[in-house]
Amino acid sequence: MAVADGAAAAAAAAAASVDEASAFMLQYGRFEAAHRQQLEALDLPRHLWKPLYEKIAGETLDIGEWAVLSEAADGGPAGLGRHRLCLSADGMDALSNVFLVDHAWTTSAARVAEDLAGVPGLLERTEQVTGIHGPRGGGSGTRRQAAVEAAVEAAVEANVPAVMAAAGVDEARARALLQESGGDVVEALMAAADGGGGDPAGAAETLQSRIAQQLGGGAEQPRQWATRGYECVQYSLGGGDGGLDGIDIRVALRPGAGAGDVACTVGPQHLAVSVAGAPVIDGDLYARVDADASTWAVEAGTLCVSLVKRAAEYWPVAIVGEQRVDPAARQRHVRRVAGELWRYLQGYDCLARRSDQTLAKQTSWYLQDEVGLAVAHSDRPNVRCLPFLYLDGAGRMAPFSVLWPIAPLRRGDVLARDYCPRWLADPEQRRGYLQAIFRGPPQFALDARERLAAAWARTAETAARASLSAAHMPGRPVRSLYVCGAGAEARAAVEGAGYALAATAAEADVVFDDAPHPGATCSHHALNAAIHSVGGAVAVFQRVAGAQAWLAQAFSLQTQIAEFVGAALVAGAGWWLVAGDRGAQGAAAPPVLTSSWAAAVRHADVGYTAALECPLASVIGGSLALAERLVLLAPNGSVYLWARGGRVYRRAVQASAGQPLPCQALPAATVAAEAEFAQQAARELGPGGFQRFAAAADRAAVDALRLLLDVEPGDGAAFGLFAFCFAFRAGAAGLEPVLHGARPVPAAELLALDPGLAPSVAAVLAGSPDGQFWTQATR
């Protein structure tokens, strides 16, 4: 009987083991199916996929069993953290294991500063992990410190002219400001605006003096103040002059946190608050409260603890020993940290579906924990460490990094990865990319920029411009038009103008189509291919025109990174519009507006391809405005400008204290009629300013076409319909146009521009242009 019972138990155990193995394989199969494309993109060897899943499922962070953190020493590969990760095991073969590395923080470009300011403890945690704004000095005499000091001195020398111009100070003052800021232009300009030299101790003393004066006799006592973790406001519960018997303590919660994550305990003279298990407040109150009458609630991402005082009296502090912050000083500090963080942030992108069902690229940025930051950089890496998005069975995404060895490791070896993207091979461009992370001496970038600027100047001196015909098109019969994708509205517009709408291109006298039709009078001009990509049009103009007053500086984030870094250092506190082409599945990458050249460089990680200078004069009425000019290039070389007013594309810009946030992905553009925008521009910029800008933009568009036509002439039958986009630059004579892009107008867009556009083009080609639609340009 016992034998039978034992056999049954063994059979049951075996069956359970089989069931468990089957369940695991089923779960792993789902994991592989959901993540196959991502795993292949990582180039993670297939035999490591299952171990990776096992560690994810078991939440196993076991790299500490194989490696240890050690103090960074001079020589050898350098990392971003204050430690290096060294192998503590006897050895590890290439492709033999895989590890999970946690992320300390995930955010978006626009939320970096907002999160640092609003999420309790995040600013302190970030400074602890990265060492940002740690004491300069200490360890002097080491090669590492000498390199840092050399880099700071080089940055000071490079940025003195920019600070002198932007802050209106002399050379000695600019140099002092830069030395205090470690060569950082933005921090130096902020210190100049504050009227100080950036001395933290002095600033703290001034702040404490102000607080003491506010709390002292005769001074008005503040009823509202802030600390690093919370805000306080005290008031009368009954209103009026009933005495200050109420005080609110408000804590900003991290994104996604709700009331269920909050633990709040109010005692007679003690308050304890924690969020998701992390303590936020745990201290004695200034005086006694009625714990039973006090309440707390979460609303709009903020925890509000409302305390009822036992005695209606003024409280100089809420929690005994709290340290107040000056909101303006804290905001400046947050901006400095946010700007410096682009050395440490890494990005990944995914596709998100908009409400109109179109796909858009959504980029997230993350800060690794101490382990991830301790992985050093090397041109000959021994590990790879890449972001991975895990999608669990409930549809929730968990981001972390995956690390695995790609070369044999011995005990004591420093784990090192290549910080540069895999596609970046050119040594100088790699150096330019790494400049955004390690900030070495920048002379190589300044030299690269100088060489490119000289090349642009030489091109401008020798640039040839094609002659434009002053005559109208010779008269010819035009009876029918073909408009690709035309519907009932197109038919009504075409027939209302006295033409027939042809069913096929072969039946038409004039063809509006994005595809070529050899021999036909077609809108597919030879210039279409030259200016089709985002940022590509400006690059084309730079190759044929060089440096022109109406042309934005633009740099490829694939082949001109070093040149861009040099130009950004020379520009100082300049702004850049970072753009990318449509990627896989037609998803558009939203343009990014930033004052951080390091942020622009790091966006190359996530598919952005160009950085264009963006004058802040283009930020009008809370949005970035780009004005469009519509130009018709006839087959005989005549050029016509659309006379019914162009369009203005506007993208909302997030701002703080009257300045755009230093890095933000811009939302989809809204379109306004030029006449409507001109009225607002007149109110904000003065009368006549936009009209002068529009006339200058017309001249610039015609000049650009003349330059291109000398290189890419038409075939004698095609005509072109082009949209030129201009930013606004503040100049001596008012607003000046800066060419930001050009594109051929697709056939499907014709009617959206104006129902009369296609028939009006046909009239030009027939030799009888209507003056209410087109004005001829001659130069």
UniProtKB/TrEMBL annotation:
<dbReference type="InterPro" id="IPR057954">
    <property type="entry name" value="SET_TTL12"/>
</dbReference>
<dbReference type="Pfam" id="PF25556">
    <property type="entry name" value="SET_TTL"/>
</dbReference>
<dbReference type="InterPro" id="IPR007052">
    <property type="entry name" value="CS_dom"/>
</dbReference>
<dbReference type="InterPro" id="IPR027749">
    <property type="entry name" value="TTLL12"/>
</dbReference>
<protein>
    <recommendedName>
        <fullName>CS domain-containing protein</fullName>
    </recommendedName>
</protein>
<feature type="domain" description="CS">
    <location>
        <begin position="225"/>
        <end position="319"/>
    </location>
</feature>
<dbReference type="GO" id="GO:0005737">
    <property type="term" value="C:cytoplasm"/>
</dbReference>
<dbReference type="InterPro" id="IPR008978">
    <property type="entry name" value="HSP20-like_chaperone"/>
</dbReference>
